[in-house]
Amino acid sequence: MSLVAGSYERFIWGYKLKSRKHPHSLTLTPLFSFPSHLSTIKTVAVAGSAAVSAGNDDTIKIYDLSSSSEIGSFHHSSSITSLSFFSPPSLSSFPRNLLAADAEGSLSIYDADPFVHLKTLKVHKKAVNSLTVHPSGKLALTVGHDDCLAMVNLVRGRRSFYCKLSKEASIVQFDETGEKFFMVVDEKVSVHESEDAKLIVELDNRKRVLCAAPGASGILFTGGEDRNITAWDTGSGKVAYSIEDAHAARVKGIVVLSKNSGGSEEEDPYIVASASSDGVIRVWDVRMANKGKPTPLAEANTKSRLTCLAGSSIKSLKRPRLEMLNADENRGAAAVES
C-alpha cells in the first residue's frame, strides 16, 4: 500500500504503508520527498506502481513507486487542475490510461504504457475543477468553473453531454460500481444515478467539503473545513459514522486503502488515509469510530502545507508482465479514435 501527497511548497511526498507484527500497528515508511515542481502541486494520482503529480507549472511529473524515482514528465499548455488514472480489472496493478484536466477547460487523454499523449479535447468554457473516470473506462465526468457538468465519451474521444448546474461544483466522483456519482457544492454533496443523473439524496455537511472518496457498500467519505472524516450512507443520506477532529487543520485529501471489510478485525482493518493542510498524514481503521475516538494506526508529519493526497491499495508494487495479458481487453475500453 502506498500514498503520495503534494504541497504548496512544490514538494512531492511518497510513503509505503507497512504492517508490523501487532495487528493494529502500521508504519508509514518514506519513499521519497523532493521539490518536483516549480510551483504549487494541485493534484496527484496513483495506480499500482505508477504515480503522477501536476499543478501551476504546466507540467505532469511521472513516478515509479517500485523504484522510488521520477521517470518522466509531460509539458502542458496550462495549469493542470485534476488527474485520474484508469486501470482495467485485469491490469489493476498498473494503469492503462491517464486523464488530465486543465485551467483552460480541456481534457487530455494519455496512454500509460508507455506514457504517450493521445488526444486533447475542449470540454468546458472555463477551468475544470474535477474529473472522474467510470470503472468501465468508457466515459468520464467533469465539473468546471463555468458551473457546468460534462460527460466525455472516451471510446470516441468527444464530449457527449453538457449541462448547466445551479451552482459551481468543486468535486465529481463515481462510486466503486459506477452506478452512482457524487457532486460537491460547498458544504453539500448530491448523490445521482449515473444512468440519467437523477438526484437520489443530498448530504448536508456542517462546513465546506474539500475532499471525498467512495468506499464499499454505498459509503462515501468526506473531509474538509470541519476537520472531521465523515462516512455517509448514500442510500439513506445519513451519517454512518464519523471521526471527530481527525486533524488539527482542514482535511485536504482522503484515500480508501483497504476495501475488503469482510475479514476479521485483526487481520483486515478497513484502512482509510487522510491528509491535512498542516502537513499531517494519518492512517485509520475507521471501524473503530463507533468505539470512541480512534487512534491513528500510523502518522507522518511532512511539515508542509499539503494540498492533495492519493494512494493505492495494491500491496505489491512490482509491475506485472504485460505481455501475458490480453492486449485487446486492455486497450478496448479506454482507447481513443484518432
UniProtKB/TrEMBL annotation:
WD repeats lie at residues 34-73, 272-287. Keywords: Kinase, Repeat, Ribosome biogenesis, Transferase, WD repeat. GO terms for biological process: ribosome biogenesis. The keyword Cytoplasm does not apply. SUPFAM superfamilies: WD40 repeat-like. Transmembrane segments: none annotated. Pfam families: WD40. InterPro entries: PAK1-Kinase_Regulator, WD40/YVTN_repeat-like_dom_sf, WD40_PAC1, WD40_repeat_CS, WD40_repeat_dom_sf, WD40_rpt. One of its GO terms (molecular function) is kinase activity. The keyword Kinase applies. This is P21-activated protein kinase-interacting protein 1-like. It comes from Sesamum alatum.
